[in-house]
Amino acid sequence: MDHIENDDNFKGLQVNKGISEQPIVNPYLKDFKKFKRKQYSVSEYVEGILNKNISILSQAVTLVESSKPEHQSIAQEVIEKCLPYSGNSIRVGITGVPGAGKSTSIDAFGMHLLKQKHKIAVLAIDPSSEISKGSILGDKTRMERLSIAPNTFIRPSPSAGSLGGVARKTRETVVLCEAAGFDRIIIETVGVGQSETAVHSMVDFFMLIQLAGTGDELQGIKRGIMEMADGIIINKADGNNIENAKLAQSHFKNALHLFPLAESGWAPQVLTYSGYYDIGIPDVWSMIDAYIDFVNNNGYFLHKRNEQSKYWMYETIN
Ligand code: GDP
Q1: Which of 69, 70, 214, 252 is deepest in the core (most CB within 10 A)?
Q2: pTM (2 d.p.)
Q3: CA of 271 to the centre of ligand 1 (A)
Q4: How far is the CA of 10 from the centre of ligand 1 (A)?
């Protein structure tokens, strides 16, 4: 039958007849279901993760991120069984506005850590990723060296739902990664909103990437984010920009003096570096190591981890 739109009443509109569905081009596609990934049992997942099987880890994370109840119940059991093997990593949060150089920096940080025989997991929290289709970490090529390196696990932000939901999934993924032997966990977020607080609540060290040379260096940075930072690192301190970066460094140092001392007792440091040209990367990690020593000695490290666990237990119950 012809389309009603082709009636004379609808001048200027011509609708062609449709065609019937084409046969399947690839006959093997019909049997695709047969090739679907194997569903493991809870103990197979746990065993695989503890045996550092990245493919199984990756599939377990997919279950964690799934909103299907049957996936969630397996995921929760796997997490519970992995919990006793978690906690043995240094968790670092990294934030900065788009373009600050987060992925370039994480690539450089990761390569530095790999040289020191660490295993690195890079996760992300980006509640906007459903809309932006994963502006952060969505595209693995942003970390060119790290994404093809061994002993590395890179995972984009879970994309479903509220910030709370996205954050909880990342938090649970941290547990699985640690059980799989990753001892340096980097959690990236975009420096534009609430997600900083979520990342801050699950890391040991929170780092803010800043840039120099925008005139008023402090403009556009939410005071709250600066206050959360254990370290401010000024990227792109290379070429003509070195002087500007040094200037920004002293501005930030002065600004930080105005804040009350953090609960940890640690005075946040301000460093300059270049992620792209690999300048000053070891200093950034020496700062983090110094912080970890400091809070291990004064007992704050464990205190904070305990507080964080309580916070997440409370969040989960809610
Ligand atoms: P992100 O959006 O925060 O992840 O930022 P990217 O890592 O994608 O970097 C944004 C842009 O800044 C890219 O064009 C990078 O090449 C550039 N960039 C990153 N780090 C540096 C650096 O240390 N020096 C210079 N000159 N450019 C950099």
Answers
A1: 252
A2: 0.85
A3: 17
A4: 54
